[in-house]
Amino acid sequence: MHKLWYLFLFVFFYNPIFAQDEENLIVQDSIQDKEIFDIAIKPSKSAFYSAVLPGLGQAYNKDYWKIPVVYGALGTGIYFYDFNNDAYKKYRKAYKLLKLDLPNDYPGISASSLESAQEYHKKYRDLSLLVTAGLYVLQIVEASVDAHMQYHNTDPDLSFKPIIIQDEMQGKSMVGISLNYQF
């Protein structure tokens, strides 16, 4: 009778019991959420800082060695803009004085020479302004890309390096670039 009673209890009241239901398991990890948020926001923050003050995005990325490069590039562009602008103004003033038959800083130089000097310095003034603006945008893009790339795993099996190739037929050496991927 006891065996029948146990069989009855087993068949009608049998419910499988599990310690955890894997389908409804929700893991809350605040550290991981904060890290994902930092990964997502860091490139835009870095680009914003670089736009506000050149080099600040590189400092935010902890690439301090790039700051002098940024200021050197922008300073060089500004120097050439200023140099060509001053020369343009001097030649422009001399040209105007020559047209009015007044004494100028460049006696004995023809009007066509002064005009071509103006055009030359104006052209390179404008070009240096464009290059400086391009360098400014480039440092913003570099800061953003560098912030993106800090979270990517770089594989040492992929290499890109220069090689020297010996040509056995002619006995000459050639320089080339090799892209290697090891499995």
Structural write-up:
The protein is mostly helical. The protein has a domain of 116 residues. It contains five helices and two strands; from the N terminus they run αααααββ. The chain has a two-stranded antiparallel ribbon with strand order 1-2. It starts with a helix and ends with a strand.
The DSSP helix count reads: 5
- Helix vs. strand class: mainly alpha
Report the average pLDDT across residues. 82
Helix-strand pattern: HHHHHEE
Number of strands: 2
Q: Largest sheet, order of strands side by side?
A: 1-2
> How large a portion of the residues is in β-strands, by DSSP E?
5-15%
Biggest sheet layout: 2 strands, antiparallel
Topology (SSEs and partners):
Layout: H1 2-12, H2 30-52, H3 56-60, H4 66-99, H5 111-149, E1 158-167, E2 172-181
Keywords, separated by commas or semicolons:
mainly alpha, 183 residues, two-stranded antiparallel sheet, 5 helices, 2 strands, single chain, elongated
